[in-house]
């Protein structure tokens, strides 16, 4: 395996902004969860099918699972962001390394924040469904979310190939 150059790539203002938006949505969701928890029934949505309908119910303590997984992923990807020289690149050279590292770092940043916002949204929807104010995620949830995530990955891969 070819050793890739190590270049310090500082975070950008855009990355800090995306982190702030994701964290605000996460903490807002946690506040909503804690304020609603006592009023929720014992059974809450545990899983949705591809059409956004609940296909498994579980105990309300399961509501803490997605936020826990989300924050662990967010922290792990934040650490990963700091080491763009460990990612796989196509046609990496000394001349384009800094540009490629910035692009790779930004992709990880965007994806980690999309995931945290997704998990926050699903947790809020779980609370709404359990309390009877919503029926599910909706039929368009899965296609829209997949379009966002895969669209982001495709965008950054095209940028990688152009750089």
UniProtKB/TrEMBL annotation:
Record keywords, A-Z: Membrane, Transmembrane, Transmembrane helix
Pfam family, one: DUF1648
Signal peptide: none
Stretches assigned to the DUF1648 domain: 26-71
Membrane-spanning segments: 12-35, 63-80, 115-131, 137-158
Name assigned to this protein: Membrane protein
Biological source species: Planomicrobium stackebrandtii
